[in-house]
Amino acid sequence: MTPAEAALVQLPVPDDDAVPEYMRALERAASYLTQAQRRQLRRAWAVGAVAHAGQTRRSGEPYITHPVAVAGVLAEQKVDVESLIAAILHDTIEDTPLTRAALASEFGETVAELVDGVTKLDKLQFEDREHAAAESFRKMLLAMARDLRVILIKLADRLHNMRTLGAQPAPARERIARETLEIYAPIAQRLGMNLIKTELQDLGFHALHPLRHLVLEKRLRTQPLVRRESLAKIEAQLAQRLTNDGLTYRLVSRVKSPWSIYSKMQAEGKTFSQVIDVFGFRIIVGSVAECYHALGVAHAVFKPLDGRFRDFIAIPKANGYQSLHTVLFGPYGAPIEVQIRTEEMDLVAERGIAAHWAYKHGGAAPNSAQTRASSWIADLLESQSATGSSLEFLENVKVDLFPDEVYLFTPKGDILSLPRNATALDFAYAVHTDVGNRAVAARVDRQLVPLRTQLASGQKVEVITAKSSLPKPQWLEFVATGKARTAIRQQLKHLEHEDAVQLGHRMLDSALENLDSSLERLSKAQLEAYLGDHRYPRLEALLADIALGNRMPAQVAQSLACRGEDASEPVARIQAPGDRIMITGNERGVVTFASCCMPIPGDEIMGYHSAGRGIVVHRVDCPNVAEYRKSPERWVAIGWDRDVVGDYNVALRIEAENRPGVLAQIAAAIAHADSNIDGVEYIDRDASIAAIRFAIEVRNRDHLAEVIRRTRRLAVVHGVQRF
């Protein structure tokens, strides 16, 4: 620690006379702390005030007022003293001479860790603001995994910035508001912090669409007299019946926020008058049993709306939220939403993870918001370690922040919650990554279904796996969760890399054989010198680059062969047919089949080395091959292996009678030949004849010949030819 830092952190605790009003307000909000803890808080303010001396906000206020206000937001949540100290000092590492080591020395390692977790990465260089924000967000989530209090401080920081957003220029206001609505408000919701979430959404909506916000706010204030009379009548009748049944309760009326109403109007295409649950009531009772008692009372007073009852007590939301929801037909035909919960549930619903702060007292209950938040963060941690870029990670997090969920049962009766539109494959990855990677189908309520099947709440799902199964690129088209998407991408990259290494090995060995050499005959020094010159960490990276077309095997072979001590300039032989690289069809990661000629096993083929794509396989008689002859160094002599496997795309032009039922007959003939149809397209048709293009899958030329024979036998078919 430098002398300047030592002098800064060892400042004396200020007297009452030296403390400004904004700090006194924080101390009043933190009155639940002990006197010794409040002295620590004042000491942190003294250090922060000196460290930020001379710095001002855009509004002209001293900068220190911002971190103190952030601590004030947290004090309302009654968090611990370490969180409040870290909030006061959260910008010191980033914007002042204070270092992490100095903070750890004076205020403890925990405070230093919290401040470091919140600190943005502004001092590093990124391609643009978007990458910087994504990497900063990634770092913050990693810090959250170590200590959930990091996100509490970050949310409070964002909330105060939103409250004072008016001082920012218009472009910054729009960017910050959009980021708040897309990322920070959903995170607050995911962590169960309803009070902070609601205010973030309302402030973001006001900044992004001020006129729409104003109109909705005015409509809420000037509701028709009939609606207000209806609410008063419902409140009186509910209170009377609850009292008569001997329940001790709090009855609170509630109004949806402008952002919540606007979101519903946008999502469902409704007008303001069509949104039925703008107003509602919350009944807060003493126990879970009394919740169901109160529900019975509410349904006895007013008839419930069919299909609108939700039991989040038996099956809590992913963020720990618990409550009973029902919608009643009130007087004058106005539907009214009623929420019923205990005092503890209400505290969790409003404050989320801040409601059960248990760092000093041994841990939270198994179903608490904090435990569920820790589980979510653990999943994010697993996801980020397998994600290539910060932007991709941020997109995966956004996917996981959907507020609507489905609740599903495993065969053992455990409950899993997944986002709306989740599929059986998402369920498989939620059970375990290995289960997802090996999945082939699923049973939903004992019915066999494909992996792309979307799931609904209450279903029992069992995943069917096979050891030989591997993820497919098509899976990315229908998964809904970030965890599944990340796991599939990681596995596909791994498979492609393995394919590329194997194919690159064969290609380089073939090129070396033309120079009377081989990889086995090269010395370790020769290989290491080449890898070092071209900055490859290991041989596998070079081989993968060769397969992907980023390096020509002949050039690499020439360079390697010339590195021998007594080697003279070798003379390349003309590649003989026996030197061809044989492909099995398993190299789909680095071998692609040209869509212009659609080669299948049995066709005479040639390969063209395309940078970044690997080998593109064409039929020898493909019209495009003439163009590739201009670059002979990119040709690759290839052939079909004896054990070739897989299904290959091919197209048929079928001329048939143009009348109803013909298409079905042709499709049936193709199916009887054990071929799948990928697509059907009319090319030309007149009153009597139609030319149809069928895109199908076959194993080889013999299989294709069988398909053609079966379709030609049909009386309605006049001609069949391969495209």
Task: Give a structural overview.
With 723 residues, this protein is an alpha+beta fold. It has 4 domains: 3-208, Hypothetical protein af1432, CATH 1.10.3210.10; 218-355, Beta Polymerase, domain 2 (2-Layer Sandwich); 490-640, no CATH class; 648-722, Alpha-Beta Plaits, CATH 3.30.70.260. Helix content is 47%, strand content 15%. The chain is built from 28 helices and 20 strands. The strands form 6 sheets. Strands 1-2-5-4-3 form a 5-stranded mixed sheet. α14 (225-244) packs across α16. The chain is globular, with a radius of gyration of 34 Å. The termini are far apart. The model is unreliable at 121-126, 358-367 and 565-578 (pLDDT under 50).
Give the topology, please.
Blueprint: H1 3-9, H2 21-29, H3 35-51, H4 65-76, H5 81-88, H6 92-95, H7 100-107, H8 109-118, H9 129-146, H10 149-163, H11 170-190, H12 194-208, H13 210-221, H14 225-244, E1 250-255, H15 258-268, E2 279-285, H16 288-301, E3 310-311, E4 324-329, E5 335-342, H17 343-351, H18 369-385, H19 390-400, E6 405-409, E7 415-419, H20 424-431, H21 433-437, E8 439-444, E9 447-449, E10 461-465, H22 482-513, H23 524-533, H24 539-547, H25 553-561, E11 581-583, E12 591-593, E13 605-610, E14 614-619, H26 625-628, E15 635-636, E16 638-640, E17 648-657, H27 662-672, E18 676-685, E19 689-698, H28 701-712, E20 717-722
Parallel strand pairs: 2-5, 11-16, 12-14
Antiparallel strand pairs: 1-2, 3-4, 4-5, 6-7, 8-9, 8-10, 13-14, 13-15, 17-19, 17-20, 18-19
Helix pairs in contact: 2-4, 3-5, 4-5, 4-10, 5-8, 5-10, 7-8, 8-9, 8-10, 9-18, 9-19, 10-12, 11-12, 12-13, 13-15, 14-16, 18-22, 19-22, 22-24, 22-25, 27-28
